[in-house]
Amino acid sequence: MKNGTVPQPYSALAAYGWDSLLDSAFAAHAERGLVPGRVARVDRGLCDVVVPAAADGAHVTHGTQTVRADTEDVFTRDPMRVACTGDWAAVDTAAVTGPAVRALLPRRTTFVRSTSSKRSEGQVLAANVDFAVIAVSIAAELDLGRLERFVSLAWTSGAQPMVVLTKADLVPDTTYLLADARSAAPGVDVRVVSAATGDGVAELAQALSGATSVLLGQSGAGKSTLTNALLGREVQEVQAIRDSDGKGRHTTTTRDLLPLPGGGVVIDTPGLRGVGLWDADAGLTQAFSDIEDLAGRCRFQDCSHSAEPGCAVLAALEDGSLAYRRLDSYRRLLRENAWIASRTDARLRAEMRREWKQRSAAGREMYERKRGGGHRKVY
User: What pTM did the predictor assign?
Assistant: First the structure.
C-alpha cells in the first residue's frame, strides 16, 4: 500500500513497496553510503536482496538487481529480530567481501506464529505485509477452526486478512462453502478462485496490485499454483494433484518474495503444518468480533457465558444466530493464547499457577465433602 510519493533516487524500488516513509527511515543509512533493498529470500546466514541496479552519485538509475548479501552484521539469537522475507534493509554493496546487510529498517507489520519448540519462541514468517492471503482448498473438507486460527494470526500481524478458496474447479457448487467460510471470518474479504481455469484470478490480482501480500495455508492448498497464476508464468514448482484426496503436494521450501506484473509483490510460503498463536489477543478480538459484540450486550460485565441470566451469547446460541462450534473454537483459542503467554511471561505464569492451585484445592474439598470427609485441609 502506498504511504506517499516515492522519492526519485530510489524510484526503482517503488514496485516493491518503497515510499516516502521508508525514505525518511533510511536517511541516516544513506548518509553512510548504503543503499536500500528488500529481502526476497533468506537462507543460512545469507539473503537475496533486491536493490537499485546502479548508482550515479546521489541518483539511482532505473531498474533493480538481486544481490546475495551476508547478514552477519544483523545476526541475533532473538528469532523475532532475525532478517526475514519482506524486510527492508540497508545494504553495503561496495563491501570488499561482497554485499552485506548492515541494518534492518523498522517493520510496519509482522506475521508471527509460535514455534513448536519447548522454549515457546515466536517465528516471523513475513514482514511489512499489507494483505495476509489465507489459501484454503475446497477440494478437501473445509476446516473452519483452522481458518479461524489463520484469520486471528492475520489480524494480529497488522495486515488485512483475505481468504481465498482455491481449486473451485473441483467443486460443482461452492455456494455453501463460501457461506461457511464467511461465517468463520466476519469482516474479511472471502473469494473463490480456480488457478486451473483462471476464474477469479484477474480480480484477485487487481485487489493485490501495488501491495505486499503473503500467501499462507496448509500444504496442498494450491499456494504455488495460485502464485504462478498471479504472476502469469511458471515460477514456483508444483506437483500433481493426488487422486485420493484432490490435494497437491507443495514443493516450496523457502519464503520467496516475487514481483507482480501490475506492481506490488507476493510472498509464497511453505505449507504450514502447525499454526500456533502468538500474542494474539487483538487478533482474536477482531476474528471473533461477532462474539465480542454479543458479549458486550450481556447483563453482567464479567459474564462467563455459561449459565448467567441475561447472557446475550447464550441467547444467540439458543436462537441459532451463533453456532456452538464457533463459540467452542473461540474458547479454545483463548485458552491456547493464554497458555502461550504464560510460558513467555513469568508474572502471568505465576498468577495462572496460583489460580489453578486454588481451583484444584476447591475441587478436591468439594469432592471430600460429597464423600462425607468434612473440611479436611488440602495441601
Answer: 0.81
Q: List, in order, residues 6 or more apart from 292 with CB less than 8 Å away.
A: 285
Q: Are residues 126 and 194 in the same domain?
A: yes
pLDDT of residue 54: 67
In this predicted structure, the answer to whether residue 75 has a pLDDT above a threshold of 80 is: yes
Residues 117 and 100 in one domain: no
Nearest in space to 290 (alpha carbons), one of 318, 312, 319: 312
**How high is the pLDDT of residue 136?**
94
- 37 forms beta bridges with 89
pLDDT at 260 over 90: yes
3-class secondary structure for 156-185? HHCCEEEEEEECHHHCCCCHHHHHHHHHHC
Q: Do both 203 and 90 map to the same domain?
A: no
Q: Give the domain extent around 34.
A: 8-104
Q: Is residue 375 part of a domain?
A: no
Contact 5, 14 (CB under 8 A): no
Please, what is the angle between helix 223-231 and helix 201-208, to 10°?
A: 80
What is the residue whose three cell numbers read 522519492? Answer: 7
What does R_g of the chain's alpha carbons equal in angstroms?
24
